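pasting for ref. prot 1 ->
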Amino acid sequence: MLDTQREALFSRESDYLSVGITETGAKVSAISVPWEDTAHAFNMKIPDVYITPQDLRDQEIWERIGSFTVVGCYIFTPLPDYSFLAKWPSLRDISIRHGKAIRDLSFMESIKNWSMLYIEDAVLPDLLPLYQGGRDKGLFSTCLGFYHCKIANIIGIPPWSESCLSELLIWPKEPSAEEMTAWGKCGALKFRYYINKQAQ
């Protein structure tokens, strides 16, 4: 962990924390916004401190992070395992880039009231863990973004009255009309299926 980030973490007085994970622990100067709605962009929980993948195994750092209510996690580097996210059940905003090691969303089962989830490169059987276990209805809208993910069975998103799915944004690696139709049936208020012209 960089000295500047360690100081930021251990001197922080707020009850809430958003964590960024980069290969070197360096701060990311510009974070892209996947969401179309301005209100959702403003509600992104961008990182307050940055750590390295190795820091996740550092007991002192882990305990210090655990003393906060962790509301955001932005992962900018590949990780071998994402199960640690389940230890932060208050997460609202989750962004995972380079997520090729993700083979299911079981780490989301304990995160009941997430509001924004963006994942790249994952290979998933379905989306069932996202809304299982019950959410606090009426409190939060949800935004989902999948970039170049392969999802075998597009099931797991309940009706809008339960999911409150405001944005569903899909960047398919291998676009198809059948898949686009399946996603379109998920009932999002705003649905986008972005097709690279070169892939057509």
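and prot 2 ->
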Amino acid sequence: MGKLRLRRPVIESAWLRFTVLQFVYWFVMAIGNYQTVYLQSRGYTATTIGLINAVLSAVTIMATPVWGMISDRIRSIRRVFLLTLIVGSVLFAFIPAIIGLPVLSAPLMLVYLSLVYFFRNPANAMMDNWLVRYSNQKGVDYGSIRSFGSLGYAICGVLIAGAVSSFGTAWTFPVCSAMMALVVAMSLRTDDAKPVAPATGAPAREAFNPLTLFKNYYFTTFLAFSLLLYIVINSAAAFLPYLLEEVGVSSSRYGLITAYMATLEIPMLLAARPLRRRAPLFALCIASGFCYAAACLLLGTCAHSLGMIVAIETLSGVGSGLLIASAANYIYTLTPENLKATGQSIFVAVTALSGIAGNLIGGAVVDVLSAPLLYCIMGVTGLISALFLLGTIVIGAKLLKQSPPERA
């Protein structure tokens, strides 16, 4: 009985630590969210920024599965998260100084940025994987914890908007990196989430085969859906400053808009548990696709003022909240225990592949045609992605007789 009495306080203590960690991590990440605006202020064209982001997405494709497999091998998410976070943050601080060197050629600058994002982007994946595994193992509400991350992001976006307008964006890089020391300190006091030992008792080395993931119909089709949808998400986020400029709004407002979108994620994340009792995870992903499609189509046709853009981005915020609440958890249900970090990392790598396409397409369309036309193209792509996932679920259930995971 004594052990039973201790269980709830122990879980509540871990819940509190994860909640505070999420708030602080995403608060600090919001400070470092101005790379596109910074490059734009340095005179880089949309095509060049798109190319840079595409290369960094390619780096993420290679790096994230590597770190995920290392995490599964050493049976620790926290250790890999801390390594990637610390190295990535130190390198991230010097981006303005490196870009500002007059003797540095464009290829060398790209090499440095690639090194930064070899560590920085996988840290995001490790953080999300850490929370997903903890919430599923302990039976706690993922959405309620993750919503504090969105809250932190939103609060920071509002707080630093004035500083960005007055002092530019170069300062955000070192400040973001320095404040990551808080995240490191808190991570060391937060429980690791280790995989449960295989029930068969087979040695981990024999059971570890990432290729088996691709034999799962729903895993592979969800990756295809993600490839399409994240083209929309990456492109819409990367080139929003250009849309703002085209309609006569300063790109310094970018942070306020993303803060507003993050605020809208909070109610969707808090509603995640009751939503998941009423609808399967894949249905939430489909709904997210429709939200992004509608938002992009409206941004491409009706965005003529800051107020209109903010109103339309309500749909993006809702779609983002639904996707955060469902996608990583859906991947979790589709992967075996000893490959969960690898499965999440492959998912992130696919979204990075979308980043290549989204940034290359976006840069070219914005420079040659216009930002509104880009958003119209992305709206159609988002609609196709949602219909594609719906179709694969129907085909899997009706023709292949494979029932998808209903809830997690």
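The chain has 17 helices and no strands.
Confidence is low (pLDDT under 50) at residues 1-7, 198-206.
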